[in-house]
Design goal:
The chain is mainly β and 133 residues long. It contains 1 helix and 10 strands. A 4-stranded mixed β-sheet has the order 9-4-3-10. Strands 1-2-5 form a 3-stranded antiparallel β-sheet, with no helix packed on it. A 3-stranded antiparallel β-sheet has the order 6-7-8, with no helix packed on it. The model has no long low-confidence stretch (mean pLDDT 94).
Amino acid sequence: MTDYFGSCLCGTAKFQITGEFESFYLCHCKHCQKDTGSAHAANLFSVSAQLTWLSGADAVTSFTLPGTRHSKSFCQWCGSALPNTQAKGLLVVPAGCLDTQVSMAPVAHLFTASKADWDEGLHQLPSYKCLPE
């Protein structure tokens, strides 16, 4: 069994996940674009892993978009996306909030009909290790 650790940007909320992820999706739906402010969300999913809040559980807020199954959890202080258990029996973990490396790669793109127009050919852009001068 694997242990993963993660936190929010300000460090208030810290957590541990014990178990394995069954899938890793990049979701391009309009809801995930709004949630992330980017082209897609990168989320790991598990029906068996256990989430334990190590600190800051009281700083975690959740939001479910009315009339949908779309839900997210985030730190009320810094706004960082955090693990969500709003769907019964399903743990959804934003990949970027993990401090532990994940060996699993994304397995699929979801809702590509909603893909951002500018999300094409990005692998061809110049790459920098830090902010260019």
